[in-house]
Amino acid sequence: MKILVADKISPKGVEYLRKQPGFEVIEAYGSSPEKVLELVKDVHAIAVRSETKITREVFAAAPLLKVVGRAGVGVDNVDVEAATEHGVVVMNTPSGNTIATAELTFTHILCGSRPVAQAAASMREGKWDRKSFSGVELFQKTLGIVGLGRIGGEVAKRAIAFGMRVLAYDPYLAPSRAKAMQVEIATLDEILAQADYITVHMPLTDDTKYMIDEAAFEKCKKGLRIFNCARGGIIKETALLAALKSGKVAAAGLDVYEDEPLAKDSEFRQLPNVVLTPHLGASTKEAQESVGIEIAEQIADVLGGGVIRNAVNMPSIDAAALKTLGPYLDLGSKLGTLVQQISPKQIASLRITYWGKIVELDANSITRAVQRGFLRNISGEQVNFVNAPVLLKRLGIQADVTKSNTDSGYSELMAVEAVAADGKTYSAQGTLIGKGNQPRIVGINGREVEIAAVGKLLVIENEDLPGMVGTIGTLLAKDKVNIADMSLSRLTPGGIAYMLVRVDTEPGPAARDEIKGNPLVKSAKFVQL
Ligand SMILES: NC(=O)c1ccc[n+]([C@@H]2O[C@H](COP(=O)([O-])OP(=O)(O)OC[C@H]3O[C@@H](n4cnc5c(N)ncnc54)[C@H](O)[C@@H]3O)[C@@H](O)[C@H]2O)c1
Ligand SMILES: O=C(O)CC[C@@H](O)C(=O)O
User: Fold this and answer.
1) Cα of 256 to ligand 1 centre, how many Å?
2) Catalytic annotation on 260?
3) Tens digits of per-residue pLDDT, 99-133?
């Protein structure tokens, strides 16, 4: 079996792979995309960090490929959808570099207070300048942590040890969890208004992209110090540049960028109050050994026919079982994703109910698929079939599963229900239909609907009056959005109706605002399945 180690992982990991009987290891770092296409022709596994891009073309060029292993968390450099289509397992090592990244973040926070990097550069130039490098203390300052997950939580502990007041914004986290960490829960606006320091620690999703933009900087104190060791794009770079130049932001520390590697002529490189590192969060001996050995073991397990661990696109089951379960996993994942997008950010429990034929199947895997789907927009690629229940628990969300023997009216049915803290529920039901086992949504928030569970959906609650379908159709047409399919539902004529509209392209912000702003529309959500 051939394994391509495409990025530099720990030598101990490479050594582990070399020692496996029948394994041939090729180390090729920094290859061009063309070279990668050539190298993968006969490989069974690829190990990467974040540099080498494993694109759709790579999967097409690698007929023997079974597994791509990412020594680290984010699989942004791997086309996971294409991998799944080609039946290739994509796995990561989700927690091996938490401490390393938290420590780098704190190093940035310290360097943003005391210009150590700038003073060291001046000493290297032979100077003895004691006037230009005065700093500020962390003690009694307010740190705002946006995203209180694994890394955010470790940063909080360190900030508390330095005598900082810690505010945290994480809309998915139960308040009790934050309390246990001795941080004060706050809204994003409270953090923006009160923080002397802000650090972000969430994945890059549609929700988090440009979360800190021009409008956010407007709300901040003058002299803010801000740090990003999570993902480029959470802080809008053009807005940060403007804020640094105007003095609104006194110092920034960045490890990640909208485009990596950072352009040679990036303005950030010229600014004296910015400390930049080249995506070094995970670059410690300990973290690299941990993720390098872990990924090597995981790859060897898959190629040896053993268990699949930390797969982001498949559960830990064998290929034969996967064939039967595949459509149910897909349906479960889509219902989970749908319910997350129609429910409020903070929920108390996630309930799943199975009826009919599904009850006989491996409900554990399907449950994890639902939970992973639910967490996809919250935890990004950090969530997989292994850690989904753990992440739910960490967010303080109770997971309930029921297998029902009542008659649901379908030969098989799955219901996913999110229960908010106020007891309000948000739900979707689905089944499989036809020869191809196509996933269908057959219920939403207690209403019967019937629409394919794929692609882009608008979920609209509106008054049941003549002309509503036409109104929505016209607003979408104005934005050149084509309707693929539609399902209408109401309890009583003239009451509140549901309209599920499957669209070919995403309506722009103006069209969405116009739909939401229509006086007959009670709510409208755009959902990506
Ligand atoms: N610089 C590096 O080298 C490096 C290394 C490791 C991880 N990372 C990145 O750091 C980030 C955090 O990693 P982690 O392991 O702590 O992840 P995690 O999943 O443990 O935590 C992420 C947290 O973000 C929260 N969140 C999601 N959406 C949010 C939103 N809209 N607003 C506020 N909070 C939100 C989630 O609820 C969760 O608690 C990820 O983007 C990861 O890729 C970077
Ligand atoms: O250095 C790396 O491999 C990237 C680390 C980090 O961004 C991750 O996603 O794990």
Assistant:
1) 13
2) yes
3) 999 999 999 999 999 999 999 999 999 999 999 99
Atom of ligand 2 nearest to the CA of 93: 10
- For the question of residue 279 being annotated catalytic, the response is yes
Catalytic residue among 70, 225, 231, 372: 231
pLDDT exceeds cutoff 70 at 318? no
Q: Whose CA is nearest to atom 2 of ligand 1?
A: 281
pLDDT surpassing 70 at residue 4: yes
| β-sheet with 224-228: strand ranges across | 184-185, 165-169, 142-146, 197-200, 224-228, 249-254, 274-276
Mean pLDDT, range 344-367, rounded to an integer? 91
> ipTM higher than 0.90?
yes
> Does 231 participate in catalysis according to the annotation?
yes
Q: Is 222 helix (H, G, I), strand (E, B) or coil?
A: coil
Asked whether 288 lines ligand 2 (CB < 6 A), one says no
| DSSP codes of every residue in 19-74 | HSTT-EEEE-TT--HHHHHHHGGG-SEEEE-SSS-B-HHHHHT-TT--EEEESSS-
Side chain identity, residue 237: E
Residue 468 is given by DSSP the state H
Residue-wise pLDDT for 429-472, tens only, equals 999 998 778 999 999 999 999 999 999 999 999 999 999 999 99
Ligand having the closest approach to the CA of 281: 1
Task: Residue 187: count other Cβ atoms within 10 Å of its Cβ.
Answer: 11
Residues 6+ apart with CB under 8 A from 81: none
pTM above 0.80, yes or no: no
Q: What is the reported pLDDT for 25? A: 98
Residue 74 Cβ inside 6 Å of ligand 2? The answer reads yes
Say if ligand 1 is within 6 A of residue 287 CB.
no
Domains of the chain: 1-95+283-310 (3.40.50.720), 98-276 (3.40.50.720), 315-453 (3.30.1330.90), 455-529 (3.30.70.260)
Q: Is 50 in the pocket of ligand 2 (CB under 6 A)?
A: yes
b/e for 66-96, b at 16 or more Cβ within 10 A? Answer: bbbbbbbbbbbbbbbebbbebebbbbbbbbb
Place of tokens 């595949």: 326
Q: At what angle do helices 150-161 and 98-111 cross, to 10 degrees?
A: 50
Catalytic residue, chosen from 49, 225, 279, 440, is: 279
- The CB of 150 under 6 Å from ligand 2? The reply is no
Query: What integer is the mean pLDDT of 174-193?
Result: 90
Please tell me the residue having the least CA distance from ligand 2 atom 8. 73
Q: Among 7, 50, 257, 291, say which to mutate for ligand 2: greatest number of ligand atoms within 8 Å of CB.
A: 50
CB distance 49 to ligand 2 below 6 Å: yes
DSSP 115: -
